[in-house]
Inverse folding.
C-alpha cells in the first residue's frame, strides 16, 4: 500500500481499513444478517448451522461461537457489525466493550464512571498505560479466563 | 430565501436511546446525562425550525460492506427507524424534505461533492437518538428531517477539511433555496470514545474540551486535524467528530452565539458532548 | 510504479452483444461498426496491458434508485455479469485486482473524491461489451479489471469539469501504485443518443465529431457546457460521454490519436471509438 | 418548487431528476426486478397482480400495462429501467423510439441513418 498507516502504533486499537474490511467481509455480512428478527431466531436455534450458511473461515466461526470479540476483530470484524451479535445475545455496547478488555461489566462500568480510560500511556505502543499488551488482561474476568 | 439559523452538536450513543425507551431517564446514572438536555428541549420548542439537516453515521444498518458511500443524502419522503438487532426503537417515522434535499444535492454536486443520492433508507440510532435527546418522546418529530450519512466506519474516511468544506457548500445550497425556510444543521457522534479492543473505554476530557473551544472559535483551523490525532487522542470511534465540522462549516462566518454547552462522562462508553450555536 | 499504456473510449449498446452472439460482424448494418476494432486489437497486442480500469455507467443492474452513487469503485476479487432483463447469455466473471482497487480508493478519498466502495458488484453491458469487443472470444478476459461507475442516470449528475478532475485523480493514483503492472483506461458510453421522449432518436454528429477531436487536443473544451447543455446537445443518454471525459482525464498530459471510428447508427446511438496514447 | 424553476426546457425531453425519481420509484423498482427471469415469468402470468405487488399507482399501472412509453415516462419511468419491461415483449430500443415519436420503426431507423450522413 502506498499510503502510510500511522494508526498501527496505537495500542489495543484496530483501524477498520481496506485490509480489515477485505479480511472480514463475510464475517461482517453475517453480523448484518442479524438485523432481521427471523435470522436472529434461526441463529439462536442452531448457531453452528447458521454460521455454516456463510462463506466465513472456520476460525471466524470459532471466534463468533466463542463470543471473543477481540478475536473477531483480528479476523476483520468491525465493532458496529459485531454489535449485532451482542444485540442478539441481549448485550449492551458496554458489556461488549468490557468483554474486550478482560474486565467484568461492573469493573468496566466503574472505570467509565470514574472518567473512562486515560489516554496517558495509551497513545503509542510501548508506553505503560493499561491498554498496552504487557498489561493484559486488565480485569478479574480476564484473569479468570487466563487460568 | 432559506437560511441556516443554528447548529446543534451532540453525541448519539445507542444506550441513551435505550434508557429513554425503557423509561430509565430518572435513574441517577442517566439523570446526569439527560439533565444536560433540559435546556435544549425548551430551546428547540422555542426555536423549532422548518427543516433539520441531520448529519450522522450509519452503524452497519442501511449500508453493508457491499457498498459504503462516503456521503449519502436522504431524498425520500420518509425514513423508517431501523431494527439494528435489538428491534426497532419505538420512535416516530422520520419525515423527509424531498424538495430541499434534492436542491441541496443538486447544488453541492455542482460544487464537486460526490454525494450518493438515497431514495430509501432505514435510519438507525445515529439519527434517532439526537432527535430523542432534543425532542423527548413526542408522537411525531417536530419538523421534517434530511438525513445525511457520512462514512466514518470503513477507512478511508473523509478528512475533517473535506467535511468542513462540505458544510460550506451546504450553506451556499440552503441560501439559494427560494422558500423562506429556517433550517438547522445538526452534527452528531463523538466525543471521545473507543468501543473496541483492549483500549475500549478511552476518554479524553481535556482534548474534548479543547475540541469544543476550537469548534466554536476557529473551526477552519480545527478542520486541519489529521485522522490519526482523532484516533490517538479521542479513541477509534472519536473519529465521528469530523461530522461536527460539516455542521460547523454550514454556519455563517460571523462568530456564533453559544446558546448552550454541556459535557458529561460517561454515557455507556462515551463522553457526551453537546453544543447549540446560533447564527448571529 | 504502474504504467498507463493508453486509453480507449467506446460506445456500449446492449444490442452489440446480440450482434456478437449472432455473428453479424460482416452484416452490412454492423460492418462499419465492427471494422473499427481490428486496429485497436493490434494496438492492445502491442502495449500488452495487465489491467483494465473501466469507467462506465450502470443501467439498473448493480445499482437501483434506492441508493445512487455519483462515483463508485469496485473492490471485489471478481465481478459477475448477470441477466439485465433481456435474457441475453451472460459472460463469464471478470477477475478483479483488489490491491489496485483499494489503492485507488485510499488515494481518491485522500484527494477529496467522495466515492462509494463496493466489495460486491455486478457488471452490466457497459462494462462487458467493450471488453468483448477488444478481446473477442477470449474467456476469461485476459486482463484483470477495476470497474468505476459514474452516475449518468439520475440527475444531478457530476459536472464535466468534476469528471475530468476525477479522471486525472484516477490517473495519478494508478501511476503512484507500487507495481509493475501495465494499465489501460477504458471509458464507455455515448455518443449522442436519446432513448426517451418525443425527441427519441436524437443524434448530433457535428458535436460528436468535435468532441472526439477536442478530447485529443483540448479536453477541457467540453467543460464549458453544463449538464443541461449536454443533454440538449447530445440527448438524455448522450451525457454518457462524461465517461469518455473521465477516461481522458486519467491519461494525464498530452495524448495522440492511435485510431478512431464513428458511425451512425447502432440501434438508437451514434457509436464512437477513440484509442489514445500518451505522447 | 424551487428546483423546477431552474429546469431547462428541452422539447420532447425529460431529465430524470429527483422529482422524476421519486415519482417513478415503484414503477422503476418493478422494472428493476425484471433483471431476473423468474420475475419476468411471474409478471407475464398476472401482470396486474405483479404491478400491485410493487405498489404502482393507477397511472403507472395503466401506462405499464398498455406499454405506452410516453405515459410511463410521464409517470416517472426511466428509459434504462423501462427497457427491461420492453424486453419482456421483445421490444428493442428502436421499437420504443418509434413508438414515442409516432413513426413507423422503418421511418425511425431511416431518420437515424440520415442523422449519420
Amino acid at each position: 500500500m502506498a499510503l502510510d498507516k500511522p494508526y498501527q502504533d496505537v495500542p489495543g486499537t484496530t483501524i477498520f481499513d481496506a485490509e480489515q474490511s477485505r479480511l472480514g467481509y463475510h464475517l461482517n455480512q453475517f453480523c448484518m444478517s442479524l438485523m432481521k428478527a427471523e435470522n436472529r431466531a434461526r441463529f439462536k436455534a442452531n448457531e453452528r448451522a447458521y454460521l455454516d450458511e456463510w462463506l466465513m473461515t472456520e476460525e471466524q466461526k470459532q471466534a463468533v461461537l466463542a463470543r471473543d470479540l477481540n478475536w473477531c476483530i483480528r479476523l476483520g470484524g468491525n465493532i458496529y457489525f459485531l454489535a449485532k451479535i451482542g444485540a442478539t445475545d441481549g448485550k449492551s455496547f458496554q458489556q461488549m466493550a468490557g468483554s474486550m478488555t478482560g474486565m467484568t461489566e461492573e469493573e468496566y462500568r466503574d472505570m467509565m464512571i470514574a472518567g473512562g480510560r486515560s489516554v496517558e500511556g495509551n497513545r503509542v505502543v510501548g508506553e505503560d498505560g493499561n491498554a498496552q499488551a504487557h498489561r493484559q488482561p486488565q480485569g478479574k474476568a480476564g484473569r479468570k479466563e487466563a487460568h | 430565501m432559506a437560511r441556516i439559523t443554528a447548529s446543534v452538536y451532540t453525541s448519539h450513543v445507542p444506550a441513551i436511546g435505550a434508557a429513554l425507551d425503557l423509561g430509565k431517564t430518572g435513574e441517577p446514572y442517566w439523570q446526569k446525562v439527560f439533565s444536560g438536555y433540559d435546556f435544549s428541549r425548551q430551546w428547540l420548542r422555542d426555536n423549532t425550525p422548518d427543516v433539520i439537516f441531520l448529519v450522522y453515521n450509519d452503524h452497519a444498518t442501511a449500508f453493508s460492506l457491499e457498498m459504503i458511500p462516503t456521503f449519502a443524502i436522504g431524498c425520500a419522503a420518509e425514513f423508517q427507524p431501523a431494527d439494528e438487532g435489538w428491534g426497532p426503537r419505538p420512535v416516530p417515522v422520520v419525515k423527509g424534505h424531498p424538495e430541499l434535499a434534492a436542491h441541496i444535492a443538486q447544488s453541492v454536486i455542482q460544487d464537486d461533492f460526490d454525494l450518493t443520492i438515497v431514495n430509501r433508507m432505514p435510519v438507525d440510532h445515529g439519527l434517532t437518538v439526537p432527535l430523542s435527546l432534543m425532542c423527548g418522546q413526542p408522537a411525531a418529530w417536530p419538523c421534517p428531517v434530511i438525513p445525511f450519512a457520512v462514512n466514518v466506519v470503513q477507512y478511508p474516511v473523509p478528512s475533517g477539511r473535506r467535511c468542513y468544506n462540505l458544510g460550506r457548500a451546504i450553506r451556499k445550497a440552503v441560501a439559494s433555496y427560494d422558500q423562506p425556510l429556517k433550517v438547522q444543521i445538526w452534527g452528531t457522534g463523538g466525543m471521545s470514545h473507543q468501543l473496541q479492543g483492549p483500549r475500549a473505554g478511552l476518554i479524553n476530557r481535556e482534548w474534548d474540551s479543547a475540541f469544543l473551544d476550537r469548534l466554536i472559535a476557529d473551526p477552519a483551523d480545527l478542520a486541519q486535524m489529521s485522522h490519526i490525532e482523532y484516533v490517538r487522542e479521542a479513541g477509534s470511534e472519536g473519529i465521528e467528530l469530523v461530522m461536527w465540522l460539516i455542521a460547523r462549516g454550514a454556519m455563517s462566518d460571523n462568530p456564533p452565539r453559544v446558546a448552550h454547552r454541556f459535557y458529561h462522562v460517561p454515557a455507556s462508553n462515551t463522553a457526551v458532548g453537546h453544543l447549540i450555536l446560533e447564527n448571529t | 510504479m504502474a504504467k498507463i499504456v493508453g486509453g480507449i473510449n467506446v460506445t456500449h449498446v446492449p444490442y452489440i452483444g446480440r450482434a456478437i452472439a449472432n455473428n453479424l460482424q460482416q452484416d452490412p448494418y454492423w460492418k462499419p461498426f465492427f471494422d473499427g476494432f481490428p486496429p485497436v486489437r493490434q494496438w492492445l497486442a502491442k502495449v500488452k496491458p495487465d489491467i483494465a480500469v473501466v469507467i462506465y455507467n450502470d443501467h439498473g443492474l448493480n445499482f437501483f434508485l434506492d441508493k445512487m452513487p455519483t462515483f463508485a469503485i469496485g473492490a471485489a476479487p471478481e465481478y459477475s455479469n448477470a441477466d439485465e432483463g433481456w435474457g441475453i447469455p451472460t459472460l463469464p466473471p471478470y477477475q478483479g485486482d483488489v490491491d489496485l482497487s483499494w489503492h485507488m480508493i485510499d488515494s481518491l478519498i485522500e484527494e477529496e473524491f467522495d466515492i462509494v466502495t463496493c466489495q460486491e458488484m455486478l457488471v452490466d453491458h457497459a462494462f462487458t461489451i467493450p471488453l468483448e469487443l477488444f478481446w473477442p472470444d477470449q474467456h476469461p478476459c485476459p486482463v484483470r479489471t477495476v470497474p468505476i461507475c459514474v452516475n449518468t442516470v439520475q440527475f444531478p449528475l457530476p459536472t464535466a469539469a468534476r469528471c475530468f478532475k476525477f479522471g486525472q485523480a484516477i490517473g495519478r493514483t494508478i501511476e503512484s501504485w507500487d507495481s509493475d503492472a501495465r494499465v489501460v483506461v477504458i471509458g464507455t458510453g455515448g455518443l449522442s443518443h436519446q432513448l426517451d421522449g418525443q425527441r427519441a432518436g436524437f443524434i448530433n454528429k457535428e458535436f460528436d465529431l468535435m468532441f472526439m477531436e477536442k478530447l485529443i487536443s483540448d479536453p477541457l473544451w467540453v467543460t464549458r457546457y453544463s449538464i443541461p447543455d449536454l443533454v440538449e446537445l447530445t440527448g438524455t443518454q448522450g451525457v454518457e460521454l462524461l465517461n469518455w471525459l473521465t477516461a481522458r482525464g486519467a491519461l494525464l498530459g498530452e495524448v495522440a490519436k492511435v485510431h478512431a471510428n464513428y458511425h451512425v447508427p447502432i440501434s438508437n446511438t451514434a457509436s464512437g471509438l477513440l484509442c489514445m496514447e500518451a505522447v | 418548487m424551487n428546483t423546477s424553476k431552474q429546469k431547462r426546457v428541452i422539447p420532447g425531453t425529460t431529465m430524470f431528476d429527483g422529482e422524476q425519481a421519486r415519482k417513478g420509484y415503484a414503477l422503476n423498482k418493478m422494472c428493476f426486478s425484471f433483471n431476473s427471469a423468474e420475475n419476468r415469468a411471474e409478471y407475464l402470468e398476472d401482470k396486474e397482480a405483479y404491478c400491485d405487488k410493487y405498489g404502482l399507482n393507477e397511472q403507472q399501472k395503466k401506462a405499464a400495462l398498455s406499454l405506452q412509453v410516453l405515459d410511463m415516462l410521464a409517470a416517472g419511468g426511466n428509459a434504462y429501467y423501462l427497457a427491461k419491461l420492453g424486453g419482456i415483449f421483445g421490444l428493442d430500443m428502436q421499437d420504443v423510439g418509434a413508438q414515442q415519436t409516432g413513426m413507423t420503426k422503418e421511418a425511425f431507423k431511416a431518420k437515424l441513418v440520415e442523422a449519420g450522413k
